[in-house]
Amino acid sequence: MDGMTSYLIGCTLYITVFQAFYLIAMRKTTFFRMNRIILMSGTFACMIMPLVNFFLPESVSSLGLITAGHKLYTEIEAFADSVISAGEGPQRGKMIFCIIYFTGAATTMFMTIMSMIRMTEFIRRIPCTEEDGVKIRMTGTDIASFSWCRNIVISRNDIENNPLILAHEKMHVKCWHSFDMMAYSAVTAIQWFNPIVWLVRKELKMLHEYEADALTADKEWHDYQLLLIRKAVGEKQFMAANGFNHSKVKSRISMMNRKRSGKWMKLVYILCLPILAGAMCCCSDWKAETVPFDLIEEAPRFQGGDANSFSRWVNRNLRYPESAKDDNAMGRVNVNFTVDESGKVTDVRVLSGVHPALDAEAIRVVSSSPSWEPGIQDGRPIPVSYTFPIIFHLRQP
């Protein structure tokens, strides 16, 4: 498995496990700021963890062919060539995968950037006044208020008659909620195919509203909730921005009326550690699976050559057991062995045999192999697993 595919699999596994844990265990708690910090930092940690070299060494499979009883060097070389040419299919599949993935990622990022550009242009056209480090852009039209970075767009009517709306938008600016959305846009671009990432994006926006509501309403819960209801029907604004009536009013009012979560609930976050550790083990097991021969960077080399060189060496050292000749035993013995990080041949075993004597001879000759030059992947030696068919054939008199 190549580096990009391995990274995407690990990243998807970690993010899915972590964010699913958040949705199940923590989304209904009232630790708004803590939830936001953990959700953002945990998500980016999940994107970094696959880059850490914690996983088990990868194994790579290949095939070879040996015939005992008479020389078949030409056939051996032709068989090896067919293995190499068979890699064209996986390479085409890899190219198609890359095209689909990068097209989706580029499209997602393009749409996000264009939305931000349109929003920025819209904001800049409105005159502003600065108050407490916040740029307040007041319009004469009855527009649904929203905030983006240090800018608040709000109608003159809301400024004069609904001061809580301005206070709410100031909380969005003070808490840097816009930067959360910009940072999370990178996650959605990389993980555009992962539905839980898009679900958590909506949850993040709701979390922003919960935090701003809690900081704004204070003891004016009743008036604030009535204002939310009055403002529930409004025009749709820019999706990346934080708006007073963007989110579901019922959910926001329900959260405001919810009993504060007990401090002991914070201990639930400790569960993240064993859950992510388990995910790391699962990812490690995945990475330890066999990798197609055509994807390895540098295959193991035998005495300066390739698998054909090993085929010739085995052919020279293979002996047809007398007991197998007496029984007229012939056929293919499939042997599996591993060339480890030091180049030593280990774990020799018969996958499918023909005759006890032939099986034993196949194990003997492969086990006596001189050391190889180990395979290289990502700049480091790795164990490479070979499935090696040895054909025993007797000449007919």
Quaternary state of this entry equals single chain
Q: In which range does the helix fraction lie?
A: 40-55%
Tell how many strands the DSSP assignment holds.
13
Low-confidence stretches: 53-90, 234-239, 285-289
| Total tally of structural domains | 2
Whole-Å distance between the termini?
A: 49 Å
Round the Cα radius of gyration to an integer and report it: 32 Å
Indicate the structural class: alpha/beta
Mean pLDDT: 76
Strand percentage:
15-25%
Annotation field: number of helices? 14
Shape: elongated
How many strands, what sense, and barrel or not for the largest sheet? 6 strands, mixed
Order of helices and strands: HHEEHHEEEEHHHHHEHHEHHEEHEEE
Question: What features would you highlight for this structure?
Answer:
14 helices; 13 strands; five-stranded mixed β-sheet; alpha/beta; single chain; 2 domains; about 400 residues; about 50% helix; six-stranded mixed β-sheet; about 15% strand
Structure overview:
The protein is of the alpha/beta class and 397 residues long. The protein has 2 domains: 3-55 and 95-286, no CATH class; 59-94 and 290-392, no CATH class. The chain has 14 helices and 13 strands. The strands form 3 sheets. Strands 1, 2, 8, 9, 10 and 13 form a 6-stranded mixed beta sheet that branches. The chain starts with a helix and ends in a 5-residue tail after the last strand. Residues 53-90, 234-239 and 285-289 have low confidence and may be disordered.
Topology (elements, then pairings):
Elements: H1 3-25, H2 32-48, E1 59-63, E2 66-68, H3 73-85, H4 88-124, E3 128-131, E4 134-139, E5 146-148, E6 151-155, H5 156-161, H6 163-174, H7 177-190, H8 195-217, H9 221-230, E7 242-243, H10 249-257, H11 272-287, E8 290-291, H12 307-317, H13 322-326, E9 331-339, E10 345-352, H14 356-367, E11 375-377, E12 380-382, E13 384-392
Parallel strand pairs: 1-8, 1-13, 2-13, 4-6
Antiparallel strand pairs: 3-4, 5-6, 5-7, 9-10, 9-13, 11-12
